[in-house]
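Title: Request for sanity check on Lipoprotein prediction

Description:
We are preparing a figure and want to confirm that the structure record we downloaded matches what your pipeline produces today. Could someone re-run it with the sequence below and paste the raw structure tokens into this thread? We only need the token string, no images.
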Amino acid sequence: MKNIFYCLMIITLSSCGRYINNSENKTDKIFINWNIATANSMQLQEKSINDEYQKSLYKNRLEAFKSYIDVGDLNQLNKNSIRYKLLNQYLNDWDDKFYIVEANESGEIATKISYIILQNGTGTSKVLKYIYRNGKWEKAKEYAVSSSFKFDRESYNTKFGEGKNENDITVTYAENSTIISSDFFLLLSMKQIEILKDK
């Protein structure tokens, strides 16, 4: 009886696309580590400031983020998550080193946008813009930039209210299937990423 119950639980969890990860799959690993790194960034930002209003914004964003990736535990895998779908559809098209910039646009209808920034090794970068529509990601644009992109949080951080980002931004760097960093910026707290200006 216990075995039957166990099997039913596995089938139920798997059919929902959400389960605890025991996989060595590259996409699964990146998805989980990406989520953990982003949540950690939000928590660190919240702890680093004294302003109660901003603290409440970070707490709110963390809850919204968990809802966005649709997992109860950050170690869970959810193949129906919007983040997972991006990786699953396009990860093999990218180099071993890449940046993911999530720059969702709010409004009457929220638009999910992700930019992938690849280094060409010649001092140039390639930018791929993806938009989430009708349950899947679509590549909307691709263009080259005549400069190399390197990100560090301090260079882009600015006083709350003085930033150029009208929506929250997350900048993640991955190398050899490992998430190196994932930096969350609250709206109006980040300088402009020049190479993401649409061509």
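Thanks, this matches our download. Strands lie at 18-20, 76-78, 97-102, 113-119, 125-133, 136-145, 169-175, 178-185.
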